[in-house]
Amino acid sequence: MSSQHPEQQAEQAADQLPAHTEADRREQPIVRRGMFGAKTTGDTSGYGRLVVRQSPKVSTPRPYGSPSTTGVAGEFDEVADELERAHPDFGDAIERVVVDRGELTFYVRRAHLPAVARTLRDEPALRFELCTGVSGVHYPQDAGAELHAVYHLLSITHNRRIRVEVTCPDDDPHIPSIVSVYPTNDWHERETYDFFGIIFDGHPALTRIEMPDDWVGHPQRKDYPLGGIPVEYRGAEIPPPDERRSYT
Amino acid sequence: MTTTDATTGYDAYATGDDAASGRVFSTGGQDWDDVVRAVKEAGDEQLVINMGPQHPSTHGVLRLILTLDGETVTEARVGIGYLHTGIEKNMEYRTWTQGTTFCTRMDYLAPIFNETAYCLGVERLLGITDQIPERAQVIRVMMMELNRISSHLVAIATFGLELGATTVMLNGFIEREYTLDIFELVTGLRMNMGYVRPGGVAQDLPPGSIDRIQEYLHRMPKRLKQMRKLLDANPVYVARTRDVAYLDLTGCMSLGVTGPMLRATGLPWDLRKAQPYCGYETYDFDVHTQDSCDVYGRYLVRMAEMEESLKIIEQCLDRLTSGSAKSGPVMVEDKKVGWPAQLAIGTDGMGNSPAHIAHIMGTSMEALIHHFKLVTEGFRVPAGQAYAAVESPRGELGVHVVSDGGTRPYRAHFRDPSFTHLQAVAAMAEGGMVADVIAAVASIDPVMGGVDR
Q1: What is the ipTM of this complex?
Q2: What is this structure's pTM?
C-alpha cells in the first residue's frame, strides 16, 4: 500500500477489487453532483461538474478471513461453511457475501430470511442466539432495492458477530418478520416500519412506536425533510418553526 | 374526583365517536378512596390502569397500561415515543464530529458511553481504530467508568425512592454529584459533554483533575460500603426485591436483554471482557454475576460493578500519572481527521487555545484554511458500514453507522439497551402484584432519552 492515509488506502483497496473496474463504475447511478452539496446557489468552487457514481455492488471472494486477518481462511469462512452445510438452499438464499472492515455481511434474499435466521440461531456450530435489532437504511438511488433492513447477530457461544442485510424495493416494501425467531425484534421491527415504511409480514402487531399513531409518512427516509412539518395538537395546527412568524 | 360515564361526560381518552370500553375514572390525587368505592359499586373485577406518561416512578415519560384483576397484573403494555426527538435523523444533517453532540443526549445518564460507541463506529469506518493515542484511550476508559458509577448510583437512588426509601435517594444523588463535579472539571459540562470525539477526546485533562479523581477514589469505597449497609440486608428492601420480576437466561436471550439483567442470571457476559475495545483487555477487573434472576440480584450486580469500576479508574490513574500514558497527544495524529485546535480556559471562558489562534490568525494561512475546512465541512469518511458496541451501564449499546463517502453520516442507528429491555416488562410483571411493576421497571433502569432517541 503506497499511501499512509486511511481514506486513500481504502480507495486503493477498493480499486483492487475485481468487480470495481472502470466500466462497471461508469454504469452506476449517480450519487452526488458537485463537491459541496450546494443545490440552490451556483457552486463557485470549480467542482460543480463533478459526478460521483455509486460504487458497484461488490462481493468478496473466498477466503473471507476473520475480523483481524484477510487473505487466509479464518473465522468468517467457518461461519459461511457451516451455513452452507446447514442451509440446503444456500445458493438461492444468499445473494452475496461482503467482508469489509473486519465485519462479515450476508446479503439474504428476503423470502429466505426467516429460514436463514432460524438456521443461524439453532445450528450448534453457528448459534447466533442474540439479535441486536434491525436498522433500516434508505438508498433512493439503489433501484429495485431502495430499502435495506440490516440485522446484527451476536453469538455468545462462539463470541462472534455477523451482519445480515435484506433489501426490498420501494414499491413493494415487504420483508418477512423474524419476531418468531428473535422475539426481541418486536419493537425493533416496529421502529423500522415507523421510520422507513418497511412492512414486516408476520409481525404480531406492526404499529408505529415512536411517532404518533396518526402520523403521515416515514421520517427517516431520504425524501422526508428535516423539520418543516406542521404539527396538529388538540385540533390546532402549529406551523413549523421557520414559518411561524413573518419577519418582513 | 370526577367519575364520568363515557356516554354522558367528558373523557379525555375517548372523545367524540371513540368508543370507551367501560367506565372511565380520572383521579387527581387524594381521591383513591372514591375510585375504589366507585369501582366496587360498578362490580367490575377488571381494572385497566394507565400509569404515566407523567408518573414519577416511570423514569421519565414512560406509559404503562396495566390490566388488573384485584391487585394482580394480568396484562402489562408499554407505550413509548413521548421523548422522540429525531436524533438519528438530525445526525444525517451534521458532520461526523458534530454527531457526538447529538448522540450524547440520547441516554442522558450515560453520555460518555453514547459518545464512545459512536466514535468507535466512526473510527472503524475510517480504519483508524489502532491509531488512537494511548492517552486518549485511557482517558476514555476512565471517563466511562466514572460514568458507569454515576449511572448506577442514579439507578439505585431512584430505585430506593420508588420503593419509598428517600435516604437511599439522597445518598445516591449526593455521590453522583461528586462524579459530575469531575466531569465538569474535565469537560466543562456535567452532562451531555460531547467530550469523546472521532479520533480521540476533545481536550487533555486540565490541571488538578488527577488530584480530584484521587480524592474521589479515596471517598467512594467508604460511601459504597455505607450504601450496602443501608440496603443489602435491609428487610424491607429485600422483601420488595427478592424473587420479584423473575427473568431467566432463556428470557434474556430471546428478548435481547444484556447488561446487569443478564449477569443477574449467572451468565458472565460483559463486552469489556468478551470483545474488548479501548484497551479494556489490559485492565484487571472481574465480571460479577448473581444467579437469582430477580431484582435483588440485579441490584447486587450493579453494586459490585461500581466497586470494579473504582478498580479500573485506579489503574487508569496509574497510567496517566506514571505509566505509559503519562503524556502524549489525545487526538489522532492524522491531520485530515484530528480536530485542529486544543481547548483552553481563557479570561472569557473556554475556547480555542490562544496559541492555536495566534498560529492560524497570525502566522499560517494554510493552517487557517485547514482549520476552517475541517471545522465547517468536516472530514470525509470512506463509504461503507460498521457496527460497534460498548458495554454501557444498561447493557449492549450498539451503533450502526453508514457512510456514503461524504462528510456527514448517511445513517446512524443506535441500538439502545433501554429500548430493547423495556420489551421485557410484560414478561417480568404479568402475573405479579401491581406494586412489583415498579420494582420490575426500576430494575431495568430505563432512560427514556435513550429509548425514544
Answers
A1: 0.84
A2: 0.86
